[in-house]
Every structure is written in C-alpha cells, then in structure tokens.
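anyone else get weird line breaks when pasting these?? whatever heres mine. first is seq + tokens for prot A
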Amino acid sequence: MLKLCRLEECMQLRSSQWWPRKLSSGAEPAPPASAFGGWQRPCGEDTGIRIYNHSVRGKVPLVLRNPQMVTWYTCGPTVYDKTHVGHASTYVKVDIIQRILRDHFKYNLVTAMNITDVDDKIIKRSRETGRNWLELAHAYDAEFKENMTWLNVKPPNLRAHVSANIPVIQRFIDQLLVNKQAYVAQDNSVYFDVSKYANYGKLEKISKEAHAVAEMGKRNAADFALWKAQKEEHEPSWPASWGGAGRPGWHIECSAIASMFFGNKVDFHAGGLDLRFPHHENEEAQCCAHFKTDQWVNYWLHTGQLHLQGEEQKMSKSLGNTVTVEQLLQKYTADEFRMACLLSNYRNAMQYSDQLMLTARQTLRKFKNFHADLSAYMQFQKPLKLLDQGALQAQLKHMVQEFDNSLRDDFDTARCIAVLLDQMSSISRCINEQQADAQQDPAHCLDLLLAAGNFISVAMLNFGISPLAALKQQQLQPADATARVDINALIADVLAIRCQLREQAVNGNVKNVELLALCDRLRNLLQRHGFSVRDHKKGSSWVYNPQKSASSSRN
C-alpha cells in the first residue's frame, strides 16, 4: 500500500534527524544528517521501498514527488574506445533496477542519458589516429548503442550529445556567473567557486580543505573547471560570451543536460561508484548553486565496480585490463552476463572470472530446466500426482511476498533469485516423482503449479532475461533466404521419432539394447548442438543451452 505524505508531516520529517524504517523490525534507524549537509526526505508518496543512501550510510525511504512521472538520469559513456564489460556491468545493473521500478512496481519512468563526445581523451585519440574527433566519437557511440542492444539494455527515452548542446551548457554557466558561484580565470576558463557553496562534500564526506595547493588560475584548490579555454588551434572549441573560445568541463555537461530534461529536481541519478567523487559531487554542487536549492538529486544510485579476478583495481581502458563486450559474447550469452549481475548486489564490486560466469550459466540453466519440466508435466508427459494443496498455496504466497520484500529492500536481486530457486526446487521434487502422493489436502493443483511457473517466468522477463520458453519464436535461416525452418517443430518431430524408437526398444520382454543405444546417440548429438533432452514416461522435453567457447563467434 502506498502512503501519501501530508505536507505538514513531510516538513516535520525533513526537520527531524531520523527516518523510520519499515522493512526490518529489528533494524536500527538511519544515521542523522552530518554537518556536511545530509539527505533531505522529499515530499510526496512513500513507496514502501528503501534505498541505500551514501550520505547517511544507510537505507532511506523512497518517496516520489510525482508517482505518475519518475525522472531518472544516467551518466553516459565517453566515446573514445570500445565498450568493455566494466561499462556493461553498470548499464546492465541500471537497466535491471529501471525494469524493476517500471515492470514490477509499475512506475512511469522517464529516463535520460548524455553522451560525452567532447573530451580530452577523445582529442588525444583523434591525434593518435589522425581521425576527426567528432567522426571518431560518433563511430564509438554507434558501437556503444549496438553493444547495449546485444545486452538487452533498454535505450533511454532521452539521449543528448554534448557537442549538440553547447548553448545549453553555456547558459547554465552564465547563470552560475550571475549568481557569483563561478568566476572567469585569466585565460577565459571558468571555475566553480566551492567556497561559495556551503554543502560541498556531502556525497563523499570530504572537506574543502582536503585538497592540494590550488592550480594556476584557481582561487581555491577544490575549485573545478566548468569551461576549459582553448589551448591549441586544432582543439574543438566554441566562442563564449565571457571571452575567448573553449569547450565544456566534464562535470558541467551532465548538470546542464539533465536540467534541460528535468529542471531543478531529479528523482534518480545513476552511475558507477567511481563517479561519486568528484563527478557527482560536482554535479550536485553546480545544480544546487544554479537553482538555489539544498538538494538537486533525491536519490543517487552507484553501481559497484567490476574487477578482473585477482586484481584490486577496476577494469579500465587506461590500465589495459579490459574485456570488450564483443569478447564477452564470444564465450557467454547476454542472459548469462545479466544473471551474473543479478546474483550480485548492484552496489557491490563484481569479480569477473570464468567461475562467476559459469555459476551464472548454471543458475540460468536451472530456470530453463524448471520451465521445461513444468511444461512437460502440464502436457501430461509426466504422470500426474496428488499434491498438498494447502502447502502449495502457502509456498506460493511466501514466494510472492518474499520476492516483493527483497525488491523493496534496496533492489536485492540476489535474494530474489534465491527465493525463486527455492520455490522451483520444491515444485520439482513434487512433479519429478521424488515424493509420494500427498495424504493431507490432496489435489492435482495444476492451477497452483501454473501460477508459480507464471510468476517465475514473468519475474525473469522483468529482470530482462530472455523468455524461458527456449527458442519458441526463434528460427534458423538456411542458405535459401526465401525458406525458413521452424526450429521448434523440427526438434519436436525428431523427438517424436526418437520416442517411438524408445517405445519399440522396451516393448516386449527383452529390451533392444542397440535401439536404446541409438536413442542415446541421438540425444547426445542434440546435446552437442545445445539442445538438452529430458526424457519422461510419456515423452521428452528439451531446452536450448548454447555452448559457447573462446573460439566461437558472437552469433
């Protein structure tokens, strides 16, 4: 049940140092806001969801200003090289959370992202390759979009390139100059004056004095560039009203573009943990100063960094320890990578390794095998059993409640997967003849079994996993492009013939060993091509598990 907070109640909560917890009865209240300027609870609708807030080092209630329109901004890539799985893990995790809010909790998300196509790294790569900087950036941007499509990451509703929005950024800087929150240096660069903003450091909990000696042109060591004056003739640059020519600093582009989309308040702002400082800290400072408010973003979400197993540093192009998305998809599927992200709390670091990916593959296979077994049971390929109706009803209720509670507790997808696996294990024991007919409250319970199966299938779809009904809508494209082969019908026909052979092999007093061996060879042949066959008393079912290796292609 959603709770709409009255204005007077909201103001009382804002003035209070404590926020009540609802999910865990034994949990301690969140820490109070610190002297750096802590989080302020918004006025609006309490969703019953709790989200980790780094400023208070604890979970706080998700309160939406307008549940009919929830705004979400994600920091986009700097497009100067191939996308690696470190980037991918951030965007897949963000996609999972957005899907949860949109598809499970039914909120109307409006999402936006910037694309940094003007940057020192892009200029450097342009010089190294002799390629035009904008052409280079747009080529890598197109590759990034393609990679996200491969990984089933939904595109943002709004997307903006920095180079196409220079006037928007310049107007934002102009306002900061008018507000006396920024100043023009001797070379016509513009810096944000952190001494004029009292709450600087509230995300990272640092003081303004924690910086080194001020660089040339800066008044304070912590001041940061809003606009970089042109240094060399061939650098991309634009004339500025305060004099000279130059290009935007890194931090200002997100503030200006997000504000262009959403104005003076954003519900969610997401990015990798490494962006919390200085990037997000500086974004928050710029926007609070520009709009003269104490809080621009209500909820910052930071995803944990991805490391190669055995390395402490994050995966980074500059460190040369990257695995590109293309390389990932030569060995594993997009669903397997997404499952690896689901098995990790979005805030935690991920240790990327073959072991992690094989664990994800095995987990995903459990879901596919369960779906195949349940489908076979519903098609009467397995003998029906009498099950404990009351126990199944209780299990279904427990699964639904625990799944929802897990998502409300800071989007705990790892716990969600555990809840679903536990339910699948219980049902599998019932339908795979591992238990005798129930003596108490006996019934076939086909409706309850289907309800559980439907819930699990929908949950996986809502996480962005492909349909568990393997290949139901996929087809093989033969050499003759005018013809198409329905793979489902083909496998069904092969298995029907194999079933007839098996029946002949066991028909009579003596089993036909050679015929049974032929059936096994056919099953093994299908297995080598990724089709796992499961035999039942009255037929066979199958699931598709593509076996990828380091030498295989993405397709």
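and prot B, same format (seq, then tokens)
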Amino acid sequence: MMRMKNSSRVAGVAVIVSKTGLADNFSPHTTCPNQNTGVYSENYGPDLANCNVTVWNPFGNGLSYEDFAFPVFALKDENQTQVIRKCYEDHNQRVNGSAPKYPLCAMQLFSHMHAVTDTVTCMRRTDLQNRFSINPEVLCDPLSDFNVWTSTRPLNNSAKGHAADESVVIAATRLDGRSFFWEQAPAAEGTVSGIVTLLAAIQALYPVTQEAPPTRNIFFSFFQGEAFDYIGSSKMVYDMKRNDFVIDLDNVHSMLEIGQVGLHSGRSLWMHSDPISRQNKSVDTEVLEMMDRMRSAAAGLKLTVDHPSVSQPLPPSSFQRFLRERQIPGLVLTDHNTSFINRYYESMYDDAENLNVTYPPGLTPDEQLVYETDAAKSLAEVATLVARSLYVQAGGNESNLNNITADPKTVAQLLYGFVIQKNNSWFRSLLPPEVTKKGVNSILSSGPPQFYIGLGPRVHGPAHSVTRFVQYILANLTGSVTNLTESQCQNPSELSTENKDLFSYFWVSGPASVNSTSEPFCVRASVRLSKAVSPAFELLEYGSRNYSTWTESRWKSIRARIFLVASRELEMLTLGVGVAVLLLSLLVTYFISSKAELLFSSARETPTTTY
C-alpha cells in the first residue's frame, strides 16, 4: 500500500478480502494506540509516555493513519469479485510474457468525500454554512453514539452531581473497534471478549447482589468510541466533573476494567495498574488489596492471575481517562503481560476464528447458538472471576462467592450473536417487535455486527446496533418482567406505581413458541444510555489536544463500475474521425447556409394585371 501511495500511476485500489493465505499478523493501527489522549504525558509519567517502556501493539503498521489520495475499496461479495477477476484474466493478463492486447478491462471507483483537510477546517466550514446559508451542507460529523450503563442498586437518573451516601465500584469495558475499512470491524478479541465477559459477570452477580447486597454499589459501564481516543469514557468523566451525571468522581471508590481476555495462550490473566498513582500510599494499599481479592476469587478456577513483574504503564484503557482527573485505585485485566497477544488488533481479521470460536460440522444455527465452545468455557471462567472479584471489592460477604458462577450457555449465546450471527432466535427474543419485523432494514441483518462507532444517532437511529444489543441484553439479564401493556410500557410516567427516574422500560418480543409466534412483554430494568460524543465538539475546540476530535466525512454515493477500454491508437483514431466529421458537418452547414436563398427560395411568378 505504501508503494502505491507514493506512485503517481495509481488512481484507486480494490482489495479482495480473502481468508486464504492470511498473514501471521496484520494490524493497521499504530504501535502505541491512543497515545496522545491517555494519561501519560510530559506532565504525568513522562518516562512512560509514548510507549517508551512497553510497545503494546508491536504488529501495528499505522496504515489506518495514512492519508491516501485515492480511494481504496474492499470487495467482500464473492460474485462481484469473480466478475472482476474474470474481466481481468480475460483482457489484462499477460500471455507468455507478452503485453495484453486491447481492449483492456478497467474499473472506475466513485467515492467523493465532502470533508477537506482535517477536522478543524471541516467543522469550521460546516459551522459557517449553518450560520449564513439557508440550505447549509454539512461536510462532516463527529463520531458519536451512546454509552450503556447500569448498577446493582438503581440510581436516580433525574438527579445529577454527587450522589449522597453512594460509593461505587466501576466495572467497565469498551463497545467499539475499528479496522482499515469503514464498518469492517469484527473486533472479536479486541472488544467482544470484554463485552461478553462483563455481560456474563453481571448475570452471575445480579441474583446475589439482590439477596445479599454489598455495601458499595457496582456501576457497570460499556464505553463507546474508545478506539478513537476514548470518546465514551472522556464524555462520562467530563459530565461527572460538571455535575451532569448521576454520580461524580467523588462517588468512585475504585475501578476494574476488562480488556482483551481471549486467553490465546495458556490460562493466565494479568492485573495492570498505574505506577504513578500508586506512589500515593492510600491508592497503593487499595490496589494491592484489589489484587489479593482477585487472586482469592480465582481459587477453584482454571485460571492463574498475576501482575507484571516490572513497572510499566497501563495498557490502552478507559481507566486512563479517569486517572487524568483523579487518582483512583484500579486495575485493568487482560490476557497479556506486556505486548498484545492479539496479532490482528483493530483489523478485519480479528474475527471469530481469531477468538477461537469454532463449531463441529453439521450443527444447525440453533444448535450452534447454544453449543459451548472452548472459547465460551474460557470466558465463562473469566466472567466468574470478574463477578466474584467485584462482589468482594464492593464489600460483599465472601461466604456468598460460591453462589456466583457465570453460565457457559449464556456466554456461548453471546459469542454466537456477537461474532457469528446476530440474527438469531435469542437476540430476536430480546429486542422490540418493531426491530425484528423490519426485514432487510433491520439491525438484525445477516452476519456478525460491526463495531465501528460511526455516526450512531444520525445513521442508525436511536443508537448503534451493538449499543442496542448490549442495552437490551442487559435489560433482559438484570430486569424483571412486568404486567404492563405496550402503551403503559412506553409511557410509564403516567402510572403512579412506576418510577421512570429509577428504571427504564423495554417492550421486547419474547421467545418464539412452538407455532413460531412470540408474546411481547414489558421489562423493567435500571439500564440507561448516556451520550458518547467527544467534549471537544461541545466546547467547540476542534483542534483539542485533550479530547478526541475524530469526524467522518459526508458523501453522496460509493460505487464502482467495470468496463472495457480501447487502445490509445484506437482512441486517437476515433477522436480523429470524430473531429473530421465535425469539420465536414460545419463545412456543409456553411455551404448550405450561404446558398440557402438559391436552394430554398421558390421560382418567381409572372405578375398579371387586370383592367
């Protein structure tokens, strides 16, 4: 690609996406992800900044950050690929070393982008049009969507700022991924492993926290846009600082983040902590206690838990955005001690195969949905560890730990839905009826979901498909079924018995019965959405160094066409004949025009006179 970028002869590139002959590693991200918006800088651990100690993504080639002056298309449809390949082989392929004969096969790529230069220029021009134009044309949009959060004890969503008598333990993971191509981000190891682990941990925790509540509240958060300089987490921290969220930073006791936990090699997990904040004695004491609790929670599980033996910075994580504002005790749990084990970090090859999600041949889709793969069993163990650790960290009684065990079947269903096929019977039962009945326009299209954040509210409706999946899965895993009708479920504030400040209400399809019909019902749960858009766009600081400034260009259409082109000689001959015909037609036209009176006037009649 870099050779083509530096060539003046390349006008466009079409990449055939193939799973055969896959490279041992491929990561189009940088070697130091999100290095400019994390906590480490010249003012905070300068020796640890810019991956000076640990290069987290050694396979990164930075391709996603290159500026290509020509379009690059990914071809996924096998039929289209075959048509293009056949056209090339029939017309362009050399035979016995000789140059191919005309006509040759050509391809034209259309991908006109409205945005120019960078975010600062693009947003400034968009703002000018919005102010002075009657019909403004938007050139680009900030990447945006929603975070998903819930808690073991409901929090009043209408009350903002410091929550009195609340101490929370935050458990977090990220919702998004990216790759070189737009909306081609399966993010299996990079993102799905964390999502599935935390969802399964929440399901395992919920019954016990209701029967034997810990002294602290456990706040679960799924951050959107983290692959693009921590969009979701920076927004939540920003809102906490401004007292525009249900809790503030003073309410946060500690934090546990789930990173890449696919367990590619062995059964070892690593607890990463921040060496700078641990110079504070109270923070260091709490971090050491968190590590001890996690080791104790691993007893009886087929996992080993340890911490890096050398002092190194935190891996890329949402926790860094919290540390930029407050020294909070916390850990990041991963399957790598130093550099990522994931060889396809932030690429289109970080898929089900990379996460080792495979099925025996001959299984139907419904059988695959509940089949407990090795990956599902491993992540169930990790989820059990996370759930037990969080319960003890929140002040729960250790005698209840044996009652906290993640369900491998739930993990299997989650993995199947997130990396194999989102349009499955379980996902359909959890979503609203209007979503499942939209057909091809539904978020339940074929294949796994894509984890690129995109422009959620503008393109995907209320929220990105992955955000909605997690929102409704959380509601069904932690909520309670009510006897409300559909109208009551959609307008609970009209009922004195319901509290919309503490709960959200979801009208879901329900599981299909024997006759393939389902009975919708209403679920009450303390699951909420909060905006995931960079504070830079609220502050109008489009060149901010503190917050993400990623935008996506607007465009009219993205398409391509193939056709045959003639030789240069034939083209010149055709042009010459055309010019000759034009000159001849002009000459004939001039001749006819100059002789028009002679050619087109009728003979004069002899006049007659009558006396």
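btw re prot B: The CA atoms of residues 4 and 482 lie 60 Å apart. The mean pLDDT is 91.
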